[in-house]
Amino acid sequence: MTQTAFTRTEMLPPIAPPISERGVVKWLRENLFSSIPNIILTLAALFAVYWLVSLSLPWFLNGVWHAETVQQCRQIIAETAGPDASGACWAVIRVRWNQFLFGLYPVEEYWRPTLAFALMFVAIAPVLYSGLRKPCTIIVGIAAVLLSLALYGLGTDGWHGFVAVLCLAALTAVAWIAPKKLVWVTLVFPLLAFFLLWGGSVWGPVSVAIAFGILGLAFVKLASARGLLVASLAVALLFLCCFVNPIRLGESFLSNLVYLASFGTYDYVLHFDLRIGGYDLTELFPLHSALSGYLDAKLPIGLLYVRSDDFGGFLLAFVIGITAITASLPIGILLALGRQSDMPLVKSISVGFIEFFRGVPLITVLFSANFMLLYFLPPQTNFDLIVRVIIVVVIFASAYIAEVIRGGLAALPRGQYEAADALGLDYWQAQRLIIMPQALKISIPGIVSSFIGLFKDTTLVALVGLADPLTGVRKFVLADSAWKGIYWEPFIFVGAIFFVVCFSMSRYSMYLEQKLKTDHV
Amino acid sequence: MSVAMDAPKDGFRLSQLIYDTRYRSYTIQFFVMLLFIAFLIWVLNNTVANLAAKDKDISFGFLWSRAGYDIDQQLIPYTNDSTHLRALFVGLLNSLAVAVIASAFATILGVTVGILRLSKNWLVARLMTVYVEVFRNVPLLLWIIVAFVILGETRPGPKEFKVTDEMVAAGQAPVGEMWLWDSVAVTNRGTNLPAPLLDRPLGGFEVMGVPINFSTIAVILVIVGSVMANRALLRRAKAVQESTGVRPVTWWKSLLILFAPTLALLVAMGFHLEYPVLKGFNFQGGINLAHSFTAMVIALTLYSATYVAEAVRAGILAISKGQTEAAYALGMRPSWTMNLIILPQALRVIIPPMISQYLNITKNTTLGIAVSYLDLRGTLGGITLNQTGRELECMLLMMMIYLSLSLMISAILNAYNHSVRLKER
What we know:
Distance between the termini of chain A: 69 Å
CATH superfamily of the domain at 312-516 in chain A: MetI-like
Number of helices of chain B: 13
Oligomer: heterodimer
Distance between the termini of chain B: 47 Å
Strand order of the largest sheet of chain A: 1-2
Largest interface: A-B, 67 and 64 residues
Radius of gyration of chain B: 30 Å
Number of strands of chain B: 9
Radius of gyration of chain A: 31 Å
Order of helices and strands of chain A: HHHHHHHHHEHHHHHHEHHHHHHHHHH
CATH topology of the domain at 312-516 in chain A: MetI-like fold
CATH architecture of the domain at 312-516 in chain A: Orthogonal Bundle
Structural class of chain A: mainly alpha
Helix content of chain A: over 70%
Shape of chain A: globular
């Protein structure tokens, strides 16, 4: 009998790959040490990281949070980490936290900007998530919880804190029951925020709201009955007749015409001054001021009036940034449409506007708000520096937004416009239903990066004398002899907050881009 | 069967101005024009009234009066006896100096970072991402002030650079150390660089207060001549390659043509460097740069380089992988693929955002106000404005200058876009 050859009945287990081809080693070989230039790069990068960390880490780790002066800080660091050790004195941030946040805003009124900030999330929730129940409720709920924590942290008195939190709790309930109704908060938010931030009589914002309500209603009714053009003309006329003093306006316009017709020979400037004297906003809007004055006399309700000079810190950056962002988008859309328009006059005005404001640096525009705006406005008009700054920042930002949106409009295929025409849609319907949704989607990255630029540019208002967090607040914090000799901590703190806000905006735009992506790639 | 309606009657009714799209645009434009003219009249009228109330007029005569203030950095001769107009030009040149130098550095740094961000090296790519995100998302103003504070507060004073005999004997090094073989000294007062000087300059003359230097002109002419000669050489080499198929070796000839004439000229004129030396309480000799200038350059470079880097990265990513594969399929080497296939296409995407970044850098030089750098805004829009009280004229002039700078850069951009535009049928 011959023995049969050996036959293996079961498979051998696979041998593990060599050490150089698996796990950490493989990853290191492939990603860090694949070739000689790569090895040099890796070593250089490691050295750079080591250098940065060895310089800054001890400084961060030795940081002191509880101290009253910078000398005390240094003493604690010397005691804990040795005499030569360097360390951060974060105590300046902790002690001056409120100034960094609110500037010189009155302490007992801190709940007002905080509530306005929380309401802002309620206002943008239905816009960001198009009235979906779950995300809206979550955002409003989180805003409510954070508001209560913030109010507690700021030491708000019980009564105001209770009202504010109750208000947010009610809104959370609204978000859960009828999320679409939150849009009303969005609509009244600008006036509400204005009232909360600046205070004064409640009747001013209320009568503005009534006026806008009447005009809006008239516009909607007329637009459905007689068309958009008639409606806009009629509403403009109504506005002039009811809310602006028509006699004053006509008189001024006529005298201007006379002045022009006489080629400047008719000495009318002096005349003007003698006859009318200074302009005043109350004189320009007589009905509005009469109404609010009457109501205020009958029923004086209001909050403590806060002067604009007291605004500062991140409160100022957010007020300017958010107002400019929300206002510049619609103006930018209109300008972009104007630039694409077939009407030569509208087009050239838009092009001139956009190119001018894109061509000059923001600082010169801000300085114009300071020096020149008062030349262009009626004599003796004097309004708040913050409002002036906001106006010029809005104008400036809308020129940039307009260019971004024009890019989106140009990227749309011609067929989309033709299809809208073929369906018999009129200009505004086509824009609203076909063109804008697509053009805005294309321009999201550009729009958001304009917004980021705008928010970063709010630091420039320090250069016209407002107390922004970077320069203004830092200056008056460091002017205190207790904190003399501190350099880095305020920079790091302010920089970190700007980084967080801007970085999350850019991430949100990426999320939005992904979500709205409908093409197949 | 449907019956065709009558064609609309001819003739014009007034309601067509509102309801007929053919005529409606005229109505709208009429009202827009009316509003626009009313607005202009209103603004003009207010300005005239305001000027009259302040007893002022509009006149640019102040530009020819004595300025009476000093500017610490000047590229053309200027004293406080010079006119406001001259101060304006000194400021404008200071703005442009920062803008040009920062643009050059930002391009070099940005291209490097953009390429490194695409590197296969995990650590380097991550580091570059962190750099780009950190510098992009924090305001430029912060970087300018931080750079200024670092230079002014952490550097030792000039007297700490002094090496005394006792220190030599004790083997101690001074606190402050000069860099690059004792040629560069960064003190808390300023940056001292070696200055290029000539023993036998060719002379020069002055036109309207602007010195014209023959030596500089000669060097520029020689450099331009060498570049043109080098191009002729390369053209010839290409012609030889196309007729015979063999490319003659040119690299050493190129090097010789490019550098030898300039070096010879410089040696002939006696070129040497003047090093800054510590004398008394500060460094003497060489070029002294104020910290405001250095801080502006550093901050603008680091900040703008992130935008350049993103443009470069986007440009390279925009070229589809198929292009590389096609080049390889044709048998091209990787270096040829990069030079002949990828770069020409990527540059079309990269250069427009890069040029608009240069425009941004130019506009951002106005932030020099934060570190008291006397640029155009500092002279014309700052001291001149405050001294003469002519806000309207100064602001208008300054805006017009910036506007024309921007329009010039945009014109270059448009010309470039036109020249690289895809030639389609």
